[in-house]
Putative ATP-dependent acetyltransferase (Escherichia coli), 158 residues
Amino acid sequence: MGNHREASSGCYTAMALLPMSNAGKQLAEREHYRLRRDAQALAKWNGETLPVDPLNDAVLSDDDWLELAGFAFAHRPLLTSLGCLLRLLQTSELALPALRGRLQKNVSDAQLCTTLKLSGRKMLLVRQREETAQALFALNDVRTERLRDRITQWQFFH
């Protein structure tokens, strides 16, 4: 499910999966579960209710940890990580002003840059990645270090 309206149609992008094998069926089930976990976050962000039964699960899953590490230590986009970032913010007691400001308080990027004395959107994104890493390390430093090393190796070899 996309998080921005398309300019030409005003619609959000979505991808449908038609499983043609057992592996495809497992993928479709996993992604449907993920969509249900992220449904409330996406609906709040997009202002559109999704035609799925949302799950109220605030516990960080293994998939969440991998997505969060991808955001913190690689180049995964902020809004692609929306659901797991909001679950992280529910779990963490840290201030995390750049993340909370954007995702929970819906403060504009420009206002956050001014408030946090950052030189622009790129620096704001750097700060949001740093805050995500900080929150992950606070929750489980060993797991976070392992994920960071794994992602660094992926980036090196690809």
